[in-house]
Write a structure and sequence with these properties.
Elements lengths: L1 H7 L8 H14 L2 H14 L7 H13 L3 H10 L5 H13 L3 H13 L6 H14 L2 H15 L5 H13 L3 H10 L6 H13 L3 H13 L8 H13 L3 H14 L21
Helix pairs in contact: 2-3, 2-4, 4-5, 4-6, 5-6, 6-7, 6-8, 8-9, 8-10, 9-10, 10-11, 10-12, 12-13, 12-14, 13-14, 14-15
GO molecular function: RNA binding
Organism: Linum tenue
Pfam families: E_motif, PPR, PPR_2
Amino acid sequence: MLFKEMLVVDGEERPNDTTMVGVLSSCSQLGMLETGASLHGYMEKTICLLDMDVYLGTGLVDMYSKCGCLDSALKVFNGMRVKNVLTWTAMATGLAIHGKGKEAMEVFNLMASFGVKPNLVTFTSLLSACCHAGLVEEGVHLFEIMEVQFGLRPGLKHYGCIVHLLGKAGYVRDAYEFVKRMPVEPDLVLWRSLLSSCKVHGDVDLGEEVGKIVVHSHPEMMELSEDYVALSNIYASAERWKEVETVRKVMKVKGVVNKPGSSLVQGISNHIPLG
């Protein structure tokens, strides 16, 4: 690895902060804990006042969190004398993505008490982490306070996270009602997410309704066989073979080619009830 070679060179060439932040980001994305930890050791030996460098510190928190070493992430985080919104976001997101919802919310609340205001990226990261870990109550709470407490208007990504979160947890009807109340136009990614949840949780009636929305939406876009396959699978799960055959015929008439490997038989602001 080029970075490791840079560390052992005897000359003056040494990695700068920009290089090290980039390497930490790569370690985070690829789960390269050993390389990230080695870089951390190098930093401690060569950088004075590492606890004052918010960018390197945040990179370390993010790397350790995403690699699953929460104790190391917290140690770096608690030792940092300077933190910005990205630092707090990285730590809270790291806790949430590993299922530690209570601890994540504690960090989030502590951030506000220190006068650091979360931004849209903070909420996108935290809501995505809640989806990953199945933290329904925490995710719903975060969405509710975005605009009310922090004056941040949710975007499509934030709405999509809630739809995915509710659908994944089995609250497909609540997710659908939430979509209907959205002040922004739902995209196909959102509808497909809900359709997938309907299939997973066996809600054939809603799956049929959502599936029809998907295959008839945005006619200017190329129709995908996966959308028809998803609708067909909803019918097949309920042994509604007549409808399966109808989907097959519609695909043939429209000239939609089935991709290889796919089978045609297989209280937020408006209140989200969770029970």
